[in-house]
């Protein structure tokens, strides 16, 4: 039995993991979805990446979690990287779902072309970034597997994301402890980049990293929740 702390990506709360959490419980695991500051429906434009790192560390410490797996989807992989470096012996595994660890000093915005970053900035209201329309999301992320019901759920429950978390560089240290198991769950586009040998991803495409591929789009917790649960179990076995 593995305890999984599940950290969602931008605009989403712990609710996004409901289907995967149910499937993990059916396998005998202990899923613990986490909602980051500002993503619970209470706007927090002052929240930044450091806030979200503290959220994860505090969650693990307050629940006295040990030998657990820390999972980050998309944007969630960035605070997961910062938190993993601070959790010490508490942490057994880290898993990135359609994401990868940034290096110290990098920002979420550094993953985007400058014109895309400026387009996002133009959407900010009071320090918050609303979830873009799906036709805009599709320009950078695969929507494969998302039904109209999934999209309606996301549209209804997604909340504006604190934009400072995109702007703030990842603070050091950002290295995983040697004992921590590490894995990537790669969906359509991410699998393609790994197969293409993108230099920035070379280090996570070889041991000691484990890789599990899922034939679906960027939001597998909606499109393939049970398959994602199985992939997480495989990645931490």
UniProtKB/TrEMBL annotation:
Pfam families: Abhydrolase_6. Residues 4-231 form the AB hydrolase-1 domain. SUPFAM superfamilies: alpha/beta-Hydrolases. It comes from the Bacteria. GO terms for molecular function: hydrolase activity. Keywords: Hydrolase. InterPro entries: AB_hydrolase_1, AB_hydrolase_fold, Sec-Metab_Biosynth_Hydrolase. This is Alpha/beta hydrolase. It comes from Amycolatopsis acidiphila. The lineage of its organism: Bacteria, Bacillati, Actinomycetota, Actinomycetes, Pseudonocardiales.
């Amino acid at each position: 039995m593995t305890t999984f702390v599940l950290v969602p990506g931008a605009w989403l709360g712990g609710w996004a993991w409901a289907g995967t959490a149910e499937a993990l419980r059916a396998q005998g695991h202990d899923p613990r979805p986490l909602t980051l500051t500002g993503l619970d429906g209470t706007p927090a434009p002052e929240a930044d990446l450091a806030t979200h790192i503290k959220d994860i560390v505090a969650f693990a410490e307050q629940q006295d979690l040990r030998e657990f797996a820390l999972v980050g989807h998309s944007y969630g992989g960035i605070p997961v990287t910062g938190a993993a470096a601070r959790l010490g012996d508490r942490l057994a595994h880290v898993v990135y779902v359609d994401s990868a660890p940034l290096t110290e000093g990098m920002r979420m915005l550094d993953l985007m072309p400058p014109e895309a970053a400026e387009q996002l900035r133009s959407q900010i209201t009071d320090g918050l970034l609303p979830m873009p329309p799906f036709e805009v999301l599709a320009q950078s992320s695969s929507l494969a597997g998302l039904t109209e019901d999934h999209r309606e759920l996301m549209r209804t429950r997604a909340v504006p994301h604190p934009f400072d978390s995109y702007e703030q560089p990842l603070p050091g240290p950002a290295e995983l402890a040697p004992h921590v198991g590490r894995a990537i769950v790669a969906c359509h586009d991410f699998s393609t980049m790994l197969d293409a040998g993108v230099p920035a991803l070379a280090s996570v495409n070889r041991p000691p990293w484990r890789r599990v591929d899922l034939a679906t789009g960027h939001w597998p917790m909606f499109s393939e929740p049970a398959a994602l649960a199985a992939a997480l179990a495989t990645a931490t076995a």
